[in-house]
């Protein structure tokens, strides 16, 4: 499953990031790493942007990025 399929309040663990090196490096700099636990807090009405917590950090990412982050529900 990818991050864009999560519902508000669901928690998951990142199992992989399937993106080009530049995007992968940027997401890693935000704390989005394989094995990291995340929680989807909010999304826009059309699910074009997602607000997630990774540890103590709140991160907003676009739909295109969320589709590249593979997760497993907790």
SSE blueprint and pairings:
Layout: E1 11-17, H1 21-29, E2 37-43, E3 49-54, E4 57-62, H2 63-66, E5 69-73
Antiparallel strand pairs: 1-2, 1-5, 2-3, 3-4
Describe the strand arrangement of the main beta sheet, using strand numbers.
4-3-2-1-5
Named at the architecture level, the CATH assignment is Roll
Helix content: 10-25%
Q: Number of helix segments?
A: 2
**Main sheet specs:** 5 strands, antiparallel
CATH topology: SH3 type barrels
Extended strand count:
5
Strand content: 35-45%
Average pLDDT, to the nearest integer?
96
Structural write-up:
The chain has 74 residues and is an alpha+beta fold. It has a single domain, classed as Ferrous iron transport protein A (FeoA) (SH3 type barrels, Roll), CATH 2.30.30. Helix content is 18%, strand content 42%. A 5-stranded antiparallel sheet has the order 4-3-2-1-5.
Task: Summarize, please.
The chain has 74 residues and is of the alpha+beta class. 18% of the residues lie in helices and 42% in strands.
Structural descriptors:
74 residues, alpha+beta, SH3 type barrels, 2 helices, 5 strands, 18% helix
